[in-house]
């Protein structure tokens, strides 16, 4: 098998952060994909913007290096300003390539900002095909954001439109993602491959519920409903609060038994420093009288998440837009039922998995109905967790994902390279 | 039959505006309900905030008076500031009652601001039951607005919560409306009656498509898709634009045949003075390359609307939240198929009407699919329009609505008045 030297661009978010507090789906995707590609003999350098003056290139697995590149200040920078330092990022990569004497066969960009960096890199690596994974799409974010099209956003959409034309190939994370790229960005269907994310089934596995509850300090008598994700309006957490309120009005006995745990968001600081969305949710918690039934748990590292999943009765993903929804896969891999809105990429798995329930977005009554069904379905917890067997059948391991991605890479180097790589 | 003297409070929006440009569902509801109640022998005074220094009490039908009351400046005032003048409004009504020597049996309030006025009126009319029709709910608006809970909004939600407790009875416009009032505002189910709006089947009736197209100046060869409503984010017009774009990518031949007409919004002024949402949509129209396929028609008076409905292939109501969605009823009454999101109150009619199609909100691909089906279903336009017969069967006339509302009024005056009216 041919092995490739891959430049993986993760400009705006450092994938190694999943070992700390940040557990975003994109970071998991980039890191796990890179590791799995490396296991198959490819060599991966992940480039990310340096946010700590002391950080250095580090080997994070055999054949996987994480290389921080100085670009802009050594602090967190708002997404709306990050495009200002893309040029520095590209120059930094070129400098690294010279000093390390390294060349790449493939440029694989994650998120549009990395795409912009990738386009510039083509000047130095003109024979390397440019692959694009958007992760989220500006046009779809706008649809759910309910805000005016700001200048910044217009910039992002124009950049994505440009990248859709210029990239040699696009990897979409789900059928829905593919459809929107195809229809809204005018991309020919054959220029897009759908490759869903995977899950590390060694980490995300069934664990005894009581063991898991003990590990996270949860009351043995409580039934936990779990949310995992960033605290952002498009995650629809307010809808979940409404649903919980409705659940309790409809089933008053559950009010003493059921708790909603929100994993995500920085709750380590004073409340006055909380994000706008977290403050809004905190107000809503009180407005709906859910003070004791909703717990903000804060961010948790990736290796602690299996305990949260396994301690819970279900994961709820009430998003207004979700390119895929990797946390749903993690929960299913632990044998935990998932309620997801119809807008997530994972919703297509509904036909395959009896542990996945699909509801319309923004419909707290439907969500409450579905939560009540799972909470009162006692057989659900008696049955043996067949889920992992089903998963291996569906090939959702990262090795499987990496093989598919490598096949996309390989297509550029089989025959008629010039034709394929030509713009 | 007993006849009642009803104080109809429409503080923030003058129902007579439907004869001009404003065609909001609430104005239609208050005016048509009042006229229908009057026909049944009741006597209705509609009080509204005076926005023109010259306007005077006017008889708008037999037994229906519209009485403008000075409260705040004689200009349009932002909804967020209107609560400041509720007190003046109440004093003005008291003054009118003294000079006119009139007393009321019922206080029926529309929208929470009128509810606040109604609560104050109880001091003068302690024996009159207070009836509340919310029309829209602050908590549901917040759910779709994707904004932080601002102070104003918090005020509205608290007011609605207070009114839910203090009103003697609540009239909900749909089953969904009732559910949300019951669950989110903690109102006992038996304190809420569901009475859907009606439609004036004499005005909204089938008309020959070519006659209708001629009346509105539409190209005979174009197939029209129609949107009717206020230009506001929660109406989901951006989602409709995306769907149109998708429709054209999937069916390129339709691009020369199909036009989307947007009825609503003030487009009479310079573009620089357009509302933020209208500007956003104008940008989106260009971004998606729909310059010639989307037409902003502007506001149209109620009596012109039947021509727009009849000239169209379908009405699309892509709202994120809609207490009922009276325009859908108007379109159906003209025999025009309607695509509505699952969040509208009218969605429950889907089982009854083959001309009503329900899709999830925020799902342009589903919307495009549904539009394509209607546009390519040629038998749809050959079949005789049975819709009016079906409607009379379903009793959606305003007379039917008024009889139900009067029955709610009557419940307070049958037996045990004191017990019923007691707080």
Automatic annotation (TrEMBL), chains A, B:
<dbReference type="InterPro" id="IPR050194">
    <property type="entry name" value="Glycosyltransferase_grp1"/>
</dbReference>
<protein>
    <recommendedName>
        <fullName>Glycosyl transferase family 1</fullName>
    </recommendedName>
</protein>
<feature type="domain" description="Glycosyltransferase subfamily 4-like N-terminal">
    <location>
        <begin position="24"/>
        <end position="202"/>
    </location>
</feature>
<dbReference type="InterPro" id="IPR028098">
    <property type="entry name" value="Glyco_trans_4-like_N"/>
</dbReference>
<feature type="domain" description="Glycosyl transferase family 1">
    <location>
        <begin position="215"/>
        <end position="385"/>
    </location>
</feature>
<dbReference type="GO" id="GO:0016757">
    <property type="term" value="F:glycosyltransferase activity"/>
</dbReference>
<dbReference type="InterPro" id="IPR001296">
    <property type="entry name" value="Glyco_trans_1"/>
</dbReference>
<dbReference type="Pfam" id="PF13439">
    <property type="entry name" value="Glyco_transf_4"/>
</dbReference>
<dbReference type="Pfam" id="PF00534">
    <property type="entry name" value="Glycos_transf_1"/>
</dbReference>
């Amino acid at each position: 098998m041919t092995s490739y030297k891959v430049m993986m661009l993760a400009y705006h978010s450092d994938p190694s952060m999943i070992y700390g507090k940040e557990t975003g789906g994109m970071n998991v995707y980039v890191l796990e994909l890179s590791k799995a590609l490396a296991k198959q003999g490819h060599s991966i350098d992940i480039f990310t913007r340096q946010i700590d003056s002391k950080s250095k290139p580090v080997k994070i697995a055999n054949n996987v290096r994480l290389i921080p590149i100085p670009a802009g200040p050594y602090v967190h920078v708002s997404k709306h300003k990050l495009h200002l330092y893309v040029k520095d990022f590209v120059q930094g990569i070129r400098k690294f390539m010279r000093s390390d004497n390294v060349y790449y066969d493939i440029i694989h960009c994650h998120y549009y900002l990395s795409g912009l960096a990738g386009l510039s890199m083509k000047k130095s690596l003109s024979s390397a095909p440019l692959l694009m994974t958007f992760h989220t799409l500006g046009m779809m974010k706008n649809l759910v954001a309910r805000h005016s099209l700001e200048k910044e956003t217009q910039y992002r959409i124009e950049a994505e439109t440009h990248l859709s034309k210029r990239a040699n190939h696009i990897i979409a994370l789900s059928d829905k993602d593919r459809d929107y790229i195809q229809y809204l960005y005018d991309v020919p269907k054959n220029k897009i491959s759908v490759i869903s994310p995977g899950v590390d089934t060694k980490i995300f596995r069934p664990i005894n519920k009581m063991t898991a509850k003990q590990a996270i300090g949860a009351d043995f008598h409580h039934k936990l409903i779990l949310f995992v994700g960033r605290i952002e309006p498009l995650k629809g957490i307010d809808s979940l609060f409404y649903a919980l309120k409705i659940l309790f009005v409809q089933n008053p006995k559950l009010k003493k038994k059921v708790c909603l745990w929100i994993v995500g968001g920085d709750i380590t600081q004073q409340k006055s420093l909380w994000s706008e969305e977290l403050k809004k949710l905190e107000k809503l918690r009180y407005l709906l009288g859910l003070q004791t039934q909703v717990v903000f748990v804060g961010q948790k590292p990736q290796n602690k998440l299996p305990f949260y999943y396994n301690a819970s009765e279900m994961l709820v993903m009430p998003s207004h837009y979700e390119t895929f929804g990797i946390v749903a896969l993690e929960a299913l891999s632990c044998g935990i039922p998932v309620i997801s809105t119809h807008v997530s990429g994972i919703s297509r798995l509904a036909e395959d998995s009896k542990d996945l329930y699909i509801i319309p977005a923004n419909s707290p009554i439907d969500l409450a109905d579905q939560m009540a069904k799972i909470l009162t379905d006692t057989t659900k917890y008696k049955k043996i967790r067949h889920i992992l067997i089903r998963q291996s059948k569906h090939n959702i391991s990262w090795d499987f994902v990496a093989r598919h991605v490598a096949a996309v890479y390989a297509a550029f180097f089989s025959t008629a390279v010039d034709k394929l790589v030509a713009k």
